[in-house]
Amino acid sequence: MSSQSDAGRGLGRLLRAPATVTTRLCQAGILILAVWWVFGPLGGVGTTPRDLGEGANDTGPIFNWHPLLMLLAFPVLMGEALLAYRSPAPTLDSRPARKVYHISLQICALALALLGLTAAVRSHTLKLPQPIPNFYSAHSFLGGLVLALFAFQVALGLWAYAWPKLSHPARVTLGPVHTFLGRAILGLGLAAAAVGLQEKATFLQLGAGAGPASAALRLPALLQLLLAAVALGVLWHHVEPARPGPGVVSLAGDGIPLFEQRTPRNSADH
Amino acid sequence: MSSQSDAGRGLGRLLRAPATVTTRLCQAGILILAVWWVFGPLGGVGTTPRDLGEGANDTGPIFNWHPLLMLLAFPVLMGEALLAYRSPAPTLDSRPARKVYHISLQICALALALLGLTAAVRSHTLKLPQPIPNFYSAHSFLGGLVLALFAFQVALGLWAYAWPKLSHPARVTLGPVHTFLGRAILGLGLAAAAVGLQEKATFLQLGAGAGPASAALRLPALLQLLLAAVALGVLWHHVEPARPGPGVVSLAGDGIPLFEQRTPRNSADH
Prior knowledge:
2 copies of one chain form a homodimer. The first copy, chain A, is an all-alpha fold. Chain A has a single domain, classed as Up-down Bundle (Four Helix Bundle (Hemerythrin (Met), subunit A)). The first copy, chain A, has 7 helices and 2 strands, in the order αββαααααα. A two-stranded antiparallel sheet of chain A has the order 1-2. In chain A, α3 runs antiparallel to α4. Chain A is globular and about 75 Å long. The first copy, chain A, starts with a helix and ends in a 34-residue tail after the last helix. Chains A and B meet through α5, α6 and α7 of A and α5, α6 and α7 of B.
């Protein structure tokens, strides 16, 4: 069993290390393309509307915080949080250190996502001559669902695991549900981001006349592919190992265990 | 251990049956809303362009097959295929029957998805006075990636499992990768569908002047929420059980095992 397990871990690490590197390259790519898109075709960010005269204004610079903050929150920070227990991170080799890292990243992601929501709502509300309605589009429905689930998950996670109100067996019981919901929120969050990129791209196409091959449309299309790659890359780290048996090799490496094996305090040896 | 396992299965079945029912209600809801949207605000389907005179035509009825076929292929047929080994289906209680059901659903889903792609391309190409360009939007990039992955997965699955070219241990080794890729393709396919719904909705909003509260925009927004619910519902059936231990209860029920436990032929008892 020990040699079987070692072989599985070896192959798992072989496949997991390139997945980790690829995922982080894609996350870096998302940040670069997002900044390029926002500061290029979209015209940059700002905190107040630009007066256009005759009672009209441009709230675009306020809105532009929305894609920047959301793409920082979901594929980058939340993606990293889901890697925290599973990626090869030699500097974080203790479970408590990974737990603090995971919680910190998720709280930052939630805070940035709420700021990102605020930016969109504020840009709609301050728009002149008429405000743009909030929460009517498919993107806003999906995004609202994701933020509600995410806030619930962070609250539940802090209650159950950070200042543990639950017994150790109850935490282990809840474990699969917590990780299921976390993966689901990452997936739905990246889907909501993809939908939002498409919404903005079509607005630019029909409203501002952006051509099919313009950077205004190409950059969000490439961003979507990188979002898909990050989803695949992060969730690959969560593949459960194959059931052990004669000749079976686990393709999924073992990370730091989510729940350490508690040695009984009155154990004789060590 | 036996009593522990029974408790886990009991609770698992308790949680899994309502998840199965809810998922299927959401799948039915998707079909109803898709038909309502296509035959209501979008004006129905057809196989030839409508001549509008002066060298112009309306290829909308050809295009409208695209959302119908894709929403039948991904959330409904592929969703059902991913439930095949995990849902309570008393009429399919043998593993070979579930395998045939799984394979048949996936082949139908792939065929309909390819037909759905054809409908979109044909409607673009036949458009007068000028054809609409293909494969420039974010939706088309993401959808193309999903279809390529899906075709690869079906080919790999048939090769590895249907006419097994792989040994039993090799099939077990590949198992987690096959299910990972299947879940990923479902997730990416539903995301691509959500993006496509948003693209079409924004075209209707800016091109045809559909209002924020019109059925043309409300129906795709509700469809997106149902797509998210189907993703959550199907993947809930794939939650791995909690690690066994004192007091730990598995919230994930056990379905039919993916690989039957082979009893040695020379086994003495039974």
